[in-house]
Design goal:
By secondary structure, this protein is an alpha/beta fold. The chain has eleven helices and 14 strands. The two termini are 41 Å apart.
Length: 314
């Protein structure tokens, strides 16, 4: 597995000797054979964390282990990882065949057969410079090189950026087919939360360099509940009073709205716990509504003041 232990990272700021924190005491475990989604606000530290996992950066504090070995300045550990960052400009002067030769020198398990097969499926040439490719074609080519390295861990930063919907599906299928065949792990970041929800079995959320949550998607969804309540009369028909009462019952209210006579609350609790506690208030209507990963993402960040007032519930 990949073990991220109490990682902190900072970079030089605009002012002399100023240090800007990018990551603050982040810990995470990524087991073999999983697809892990990295979510976060813009500038949250996702790309920095991926570069640390790939051994590109040395952490200021903490350590990152790949199968028990430190990754920084360790070629044996790095050979287990292929990292595709969110930019492809560094490849534009090369053909895919040039990059094939380069990566074969770094990855002893590199598969020519896999690269040729994937490039054929993508209908891309291997003998033309990437500078002649569109943004989406460059991304496809680098992904093809990534799966062909046959590494145990694939790390893709915005892997599907620039791809049209049909090609996104095709590239995702190629990646998942390849990693499942050899029980590899995929770590992918994306601003498309629906995509993460469909592709991944685990996800983490990072904001301003701090870990908010990290868990299996099913566990994440069961940890939050949206409830709708109606009270015919009395003090609890006022939203503020209902929020206070919910808090007194031990429920963490993340968001509360009034929709006509319906009170809608997002609480950090399982559906069973939320329903049982709200039943004690004797509402005339009480029902739960499933939350999507995108809603969890929005509510977690709004609680922390990110985008507050910009995103509204329909």
């Amino acid at each position: 597995m990949i073990e991220i232990k109490n990682i902190s990272m900072s970079f030089n700021g605009k002012k002399d000797k100023e240090k800007v924190d990018s990551l603050k005491n982040v810990s995470l475990e990524i087991p073999e054979g999983c697809i892990y989604g990295f979510l976060g606000s813009n500038g949250a530290g996702k790309s920095t964390l991926m570069r640390l996992m790939s051994g590109i950066y040395r952490p200021r504090e903490g350590e990152i282990l790949i199968d028990g070995e430190p990754v920084f300045d360790n070629p044996a550990a790095k050979e287990k990882i292929f990292f595709v960052n969110d930019e492809t400009t560094q490849f534009t002067g090369y053909t895919v065949d040039d990059l094939r030769t380069f990566y074969k020198g770094a990855y002893r398990s590199f598969s020519d057969e896999t690269l040729d097969r994937v490039m054929k499926a993508l209908n891309l040439p291997t003998d033309k410079k990437l500078s002649t490719f569109s943004k989406g074609m460059k991304r496809q080519a680098v992904v093809a090189l990534g799966v062909s390295a046959m590494t145990k861990y694939l790390i893709f930063d915005e892997a599907f950026d620039g791809l049209d919907p049909a090609m996104r599906r095709m590239v995702k299928n190629i990646i998942t087919d390849e990693i499942f065949d050899r029980n590899a792990s995929l770590i992918v970041s994306s601003h498309n939360i629906t995509e993460i929800s469909e592709l991944c079995d685990r996800a983490m959320l990072i904001h301003e360099g701090e870990m908010i949550f990290a868990d299996e998607l099913d566990s994440l969804r069961t940890g939050f509940t949206k409830v709708q309540l109606v009270f015919k009369d009395g003090a609890l028909s006022e939203l503020s009073a209902l929020k206070e009462k919910a808090a007194s019952l031990g429920l963490d209210v993340m968001q509360a709205d009034t929709l006509g006579s319906v009170k809608q609350l997002i609480v950090r609790a399982s559906e069973e716990e939320a329903i049982a506690k709200f039943k004690t208030l004797s509402p005339s209507v009480l029902e739960s509504v499933p939350l999507t990963l995108e809603e969890i993402f929005i509510y977690e960040l709004e609680v922390r003041g990110y985008g507050s007032g910009l995103v509204t519930e329909n």
